[in-house]
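This entry is set out below.
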Amino acid sequence: METRTKRVGVADMRVRAMAFDRELREIKASLHADPSFWYPYGTLANFLHLDKLLRGDHRYLLDLAQGGPIADIGAGDGDIAFFLEREYQATVDIVDHAPTNFNSLRGARLIKEGLSSRVAIHDIDLDAFHSLPRESYGMAFFLGILYHLKNPFHALESLARTSRHLLLSTRIARLSPDKKTNLSKLPVAYLLHETEANNDPTNYWIFSEAGLRRIVHRAGWDLLAYDSFGDTRRSDPAAQDADERAYCFLRSRLA
């Protein structure tokens, strides 16, 4: 009798991600006791949104990756990468840039050592003309990084040549900062002043929904799923209390 392997869906990944997040918090505290050392945002919580975003066969992310390596790009402390390796024995690369990483990638390196992990950590500037560590990835996670890039089109097009699928999230805006101009149906992006959003000079381009859809298409991607969370009525590019995040599941036309 043929034995069929149970498929791993995103709902299972969400449950395991939350459990691993709790374990990882304890591991981080044992590796570096100062909480301010660690990237302050829980990247594994993205699986809560992915569980809402993905439908049908798209919920089986590991099937779509077809056993290929996975890239965790703009990884913070690499929580997603270490989770995928620990729970699903995936081959994962962290791709981030030390000068703009919260703790200069020291957090990811400490966790790698603490877990005796085989996750590879690559210090790469996505705004430079670069090549990724591998010629091909089955899947890439690109969560919360697009609006931190000076050259988002270049990054998206480069990824489309190396990754078959991409999970992307980024901040978007429906209104201009003065709330007088509706941007949502215009294919545009707003360029932030270096102190305008959270006093963070690494924030650059905030797309409208139409702008985000346009750039991913022009950069070589087909949009398979789209949703947004947060202030979905009056979001603007800069205000802390008017933050909206778009999540996209993309398939490359170039890879």
